[in-house]
Write the C-alpha cells for this entry.
Amino acid sequence: MNIMLFHSSGGLTPAVRQAADRLREAGHEVWTPDLFEGRTFETAEEGMAFQEELGKDELLKRAVLAAAPYSERGLVYAGFSLGASIAQTLALGDDKARGLLLLHGTSDIAPNASADNLPVQLHVADPDPYETDDWLNTWYLQMGRTGADMEVHRYAGAGHLYTDPDSPDYDEEAAEATWRVALGFLDSL
C-alpha cells in the first residue's frame, strides 16, 4: 500500500518516523510529510498553540500539497491525533483513496461528504480526553452516512497517544495490539 502518514501536534517526531519504518518493514511505501517544517514540541499544549498559529487552512494546504504528487497511486491516508484529523479530511476529499487509518483522532465531517465503501479503521483510548464518547458516537453516525466501511477499536486505560513510546501516554500492550490490527487492516486493502 501507498500510505501518507501525518504526524500529531508534536510534529514529525522520532515516534512518527519509527511508525513509518514499521509500516515499511511490513512492505508498504510510506510518506511522512512535515507539516510543521522541522518544529517539534514536547507537550500537546505547545503543539496545539503552534497549529493554531499556523491555522487550519494552512495545515490543510500543506497536507494537500504533500499528498498531491502521490494521490493518483491510490493512497491510504493515516495519521496520529491531529494527523488523523488531517488524514480524514483528505481521504474524504480524494475519490482515489484506498483506505483511512486513524490513530488517536477524528475530525468533523462535512454534511455532503461521501466515502462510498471506503475502508476506515479508528484506534482510540477509552476514555480519551480529546475523543469523548459523545463525540465518537456522533462521528460514527456521520461517517456511516458517508458510506464508509468502518471499524472502531478502543483501548481501555490507555492514554491519548498510547502508541508513542516517547509519550507519557505510552501503553506497550495497547500499542502492540493496535499495530497488529492496523497491519492486518492494511494487508486487507
